[in-house]
Design brief:
With 429 residues, this protein is of the alpha+beta class. Helix content is 41%, strand content 26%. The chain contains nine helices and twelve strands. The strands form two sheets. Strands 1-12-11-10-9-8-7-6-5-4 form a ten-stranded antiparallel β-sheet. The protein has a two-stranded antiparallel ribbon with strand order 2-3. Helix 1 (13-27) packs antiparallel against helix 2.
Length: 429
């Protein structure tokens, strides 16, 4: 892999950035405050780190955009915190253990909550609303939520909007895992996000048994009107895949025992060595509009390269949903050129859309508002994406992603047949 030089910050730049962030902290909602102020921790590390951080933009603010940008914010904040507290945190005495606990409660916890909330609400539910031209309004306190005029959506579109918050969280963890395999470093904040996402998901499942307007309860209500084998959406399927996820289990062990108790430095993800490559596999779960899908996600990593594949299988009346994806990222595959590629193939059921579905205050599958029990038809589809990043100077790589897909359900991508473009830049500092 090509060497990377350090980007030196001009004199006074840190102070100017600090003043801008201070004004932001006074005028923005709580999640933006936490994310913006977190960058202050990273400024001391900017002069001696040489990792890549992606900043991408998509006009519809997709889940993939949020995953890229927020994963960079997580990794940058983690490096800044380490730079500030490294000498204090690595000792094994009681004072160092107290300092590590203080960082966990005062920095890691609020930053983890902020990242998950922003990804869930803005780049999850909010994205699906924007996809259909609907404005989204947000409430951050006392409980984060988003409001979209769902009466203008078909029942299946509403089901996708309901589930997209959780899917956006999955995209964020997926991006953090990919970056960890490329860099060989699974940061403490990345561990906190992986564990936090699992904890929030489990809490959502438990709350969904009693709160009719919870995402999980609303998703179960949508499935109750569909004639498929998994329509009841048992919570144990979703909960088990989080509790048995090797990344979550390793993160809990590494964060609470090796870090908080013993003061060990962060290390790589747990992988199985296969010669010069590393293998990592974990469970996968998707809340599709025709029912739950279970499967496996696998990574195969080399120095400066990661390949991945995912297979999801669902159930429906007369139609077996299958979703297979394969992709990879290669850094410096040619001089000055990074390459990313992704392809997906699927077969899925299609139900007749019903506009104006309204969820009652009490979930009652037998009510007049329940989705119709129609027999689906089979549909096939696919997606192809290509991403290029070109190194102009050592520290800057503009990137562009272009893709096309047929009509069908893909997490973080439009439902309709479309061509899309996403631009961004990689910075090494």
């Amino acid at each position: 892999m090509a060497s990377t030089t350090t980007l030196q910050l001009p004199p006074g730049l840190k102070q100017r950035i600090a003043r801008v962030l201070a004004r932001t902290c006074r005028s923005r909602p709580p999640p933006v405050v936490a994310l913006g102020c977190a960058l202050l921790f990273a400024l001391p590390a900017a002069a001696n780190a040489a990792e890549r951080y992606s900043l991408v933009f998509d006009p519809t603010l997709t889940g993939q955009m949020g995953a890229r940008d927020l994963s960079s914010a997580v990794r940058l904040a983690d490096r800044g915190l380490d730079a500030l507290l490294d000498e204090v945190l690595q000792d094994r005495d009681a004072l160092a253990a107290s300092a590590r606990l203080g960082r966990a409660l005062l920095a890691d916890l609020p930053l983890t909550i902020a990242v998950i909330v922003v990804q869930h609400e803005v780049f999850g539910h909010g994205y699906r609303g924007r996809e259909h031209g609907l404005a989204a309004s947000y409430r951050w306190l006392p409980q984060p939520s988003v409001w979209v005029d769902q009466s203008r959506l078909s029942a299946s579109e509403d089901a996708v909007l309901i589930a997209e918050g959780q899917h956006a969280e999955e995209l964020l963890v997926h991006e953090l895992e990919r970056e960890a395999l490329l860099s060989g470093q699974w940061e403490r904040l990345a561990e906190a996000v992986a564990m936090g996402r699992a904890a929030v998901g489990l809490g959502r499942l438990l709350k969904g048994q009693f709160a009719p307007q919870n995402d999980w309860a609303r998703y179960k209500y949508w499935l109750s009107g569909l004639p498929n084998a998994w329509r009841h959406a048992e919570p144990w399927k979703n909960g088990a895949q989080w509790l048995l996820d090797p990344v979550v289990l390793w993160s809990a062990y590494d964060y609470f025992l090796r870090h908080l108790l013993w003061g060990e430095r962060a290390g790589p993800l747990p992988t199985l060595r296969l010669g010069a490559s590393q293998l990592l596999a974990r469970s996968a779960f998707r809340m599709a509009p025709w029912g739950e899908e279970l499967g496996v996600l696998g990574y195969l990593a080399w120095p400066a390269a990661v390949a991945e594949a995912q297979l999801l299988v669902g159930a429906s009346d007369g139609v077996l949903p299958l979703h297979f994806s394969i992709g990879g990222t290669w850094r410096e595959i040619f001089p000055r050129l990074d390459l990313g590629a992704r392809a997906e193939l699927w077969t899925e059921p299609r139900y007749a859309p019903v506009v104006g579905l309204v969820f009652p205050s009490t979930v009652d599958p037998g009510s007049a508002n329940a989705p119709p029990s129609t027999v689906p038809t089979r549909a096939f589809g696919g997606l192809i994406e290509l991403e290029l990043a070109v190194r102009i100077v050592e520290s800057v790589r503009p990137r562009i992603l272009a893709g096309t897909k047929s009509e069908g359900f893909v997490v973080g991508r439009p439902w309709s047949r479309t061509v899309y473009v996403q631009a961004g830049v990689d910075l090494a500092f």
